[in-house]
Amino acid sequence: MLRHYFASTGTGSDLGTAPLSLHAISRFPVPAPEQLPDDIRARLLKVQEKSGFVPNVFLVLARRPDEFRAFFAYHDALMDKPGGLSKADREMIVVATSAANQCQYCVVAHGAILRIRAKDPLVADQVAVNYRKADITPRQKAMIEFAMTVAFEAYAVDEPHIENLKQHGFSEEDVWDIAAIAAFFGMSNRIANVTNTRPNDEFYTMGR
Predict the structure, then answer these.
(1) Do 11 and 23 meet the contact criterion of CB atoms below 8 Å apart?
(2) Assigned CATH for 83-205
(3) pLDDT lower than 50: segments of the chain
(4) CATH of segment(s) 2-78
C-alpha cells in the first residue's frame, strides 16, 4: 500500500507516522496519501507497482499538483518518445548535465536508469565523472558536448554546433530533443537541489 511506502520515507509527523528512515527525503513537507488528488495517487501506485518503490521526486513534487502534472507530462514527452535518440542516449544526457549541475538526486536516479537502458553497469559512473573518457561512441560524446553547451552556454549555440551534430547522424528533431532534455533537466536539477530531494536507496544498486 502507498501508506506503507510513505511511512518509510522519513517525512515525519506531516504524514502522521513515525519516520523509519534517518533522513528526510526533502526539506519541504510531503503530503500524506489521502491528501493527494486521485490522478496523482493513481500515478504513484502505478510507479510503485512497476518499480517496487516510489522515486522520491514523485513524492516531493506531489505537494504542488498542477506543477506535478505539467512536470511529468513534459518529462514523459521527452524521455519516452520514439526518435533518433535511444532511451539510453536520453538518460546519458541527463546524467552528464546533472553531474555538471551537482544534482545528487538526478545523477543517482538517472544513473540507475541509464545502467538498465544501456545494459552496462559501468557507463553511468563514467559519464557522471567525465563523459570525455567514458566508454561511449563519438556520436554520444558529440551529443553530450552539445547538451553541456545548452546547459551552460545556450547563448553561444550557433550553426556550427548544429552542423557538427548532423555530421554525427543527428536529425534536426534529434537536435531539438537533445536541447530540450538538457534544458528540462536543468530546471529539474535546480528544484531537486533547492528541495534537497534525497535519492532512494534502491537506485544505488539497480543495474549493477
Answers:
(1) no
(2) 1.20.1290.10
(3) 4, 7-20
(4) 1.20.5.810
